[in-house]
Design brief:
It is globular, with a radius of gyration of 20 Å. The mean pLDDT is 93. By secondary structure, it is an alpha/beta fold. The chain has an eight-stranded mixed beta sheet, with helices on both faces. The longest helix is centred in the C-terminal third of the chain and has 21 residues. It has a domain of 99 residues: Rossmann fold (3-Layer(aba) Sandwich).
Length: 311
């Protein structure tokens, strides 16, 4: 391997160990481990966090190890974004893996080659390891370009992370200027979905970091590379998940992890494939009429739950 890796960890020793074994086999020259701190009042979490940190730092190959261990819990929004910013303060480019994202071994060669190939090409903003519509498309090249950043195993450059703002302070002005309409003309369901999502993040109703990355790509430019095969699995579905349910979604079940062997076949043009992007919106983000109706009913649902709890 040529690229450094940032390993984002928290409190799950089982998934952390599985992902770390893939990192160990790849032998990156530099490994950065960013760990969020335990939450107050959670029985056994202090011990689990320490166990995770012990696992993630068992480096036994020639490697420079750097650590950012938080004493208190920052949460998904600040904890993850702080770790990524720390990584890119020290590295001009690299790979980011969370403790529940299990990469195929070929993921590392794929990232290595494409980080180098597009290092100075500002039309490209990041490299995704996941393809959650792989069973629904026929891609002749080794990868394609998309407007949609997928974050289950990814790589990027400092240049493309620098505009990131966890507070989304530029969102209202960009929305008023018609940013979403320009990106997705004549797609009202897509526009409604993402306006609602960005508003919730901006208003502090959604504690996450990844929608801000989506906004960064859309407001500053820079396409995402998506592999023809899905190169990562998400192990985070279960009772202890923070932002996922107990059961894997259909898009992940239908997109088995498959090796992507070099030499890689590169697309002739650097442009997004709108048809594939809308497949991602439909099958990964569930941007459809039923989803629109559920969002419209969300305030009524909250009101009913509040009234029920007061009885």
């Amino acid at each position: 391997m040529r690229s450094p890796i940032l390993f984002l960890v928290f409190n799950r020793p089982d998934t952390t160990a599985k992902v770390f074994e893939r990192i160990r086999a790849a032998k990156p020259p530099r490994l950065y481990v960013a760990a969020d701190g335990p939450r107050k009042g959670r029985t056994g979490e202090l011990e689990a966090c320490q166990q995770v940190r012990d696992i993630a730092t068992q480096v036994d190959w020639p490697c420079e190890l750097k650590m950012l261990f938080q004493k208190r819990n920052l949460g998904c929004k600040i904890g993850v974004s702080t770790g990524i910013s720390w990584f890119f303060e020290q590295e001009p480019e690299g790979i980011i893996l969370e403790d529940d994202v299990l990469p195929d071994p070929s993921f590392f060669d794929y990232c290595d080659e494409l980080l180098e190939k597009y290092r100075f090409d500002e039309r490209v903003g990041m490299i995704s390891g996941s393809n959650l519509i792989s069973s629904q498309i026929d891609c002749g090249e080794s990868y394609f370009f998309s407007k949609i950043p997928l974050i289950w195993g990814w790589a990027a450059w400092r240049r493309s992370w620098q505009p990131y703002d966890v507070t989304l302070k530029n969102w209202p002005a960009w929305d008023r200027s018609g940013g979403l309409q320009k990106l997705f003309p004549n797609k009202p369901l897509v526009i409604s979905y993402w306006r609602d999502a960005f508003n919730r993040v901006f208003d502090g109703k959604l504690n996450t970091w990844d929608y801000q990355l989506m906004f960064t790509r859309w407001s500053n430019g820079g396409l995402t590379i998506i592999p023809k095969n899905n190169l990562t699995d998400n192990l985070g579905y279960g009772a202890n998940a923070t932002h996922t349910s107990q059961h894997k979604p259909a898009c992940l079940i239908d997109s088995p992890v498959l090796e992507l062997k070099p030499p890689f076949t590169h697309p002739e043009q650097i442009q997004a494939n709108d048809a594939r992007d809308f497949l991602i919106f439909k099958h990964v983000h569930e941007v459809n009429l039923m989803g629109f109706i559920r969002r419209q009913l969300r305030p009524l649902k909250k009101l009913m739950m509040s009234a029920s709890s007061q009885k």
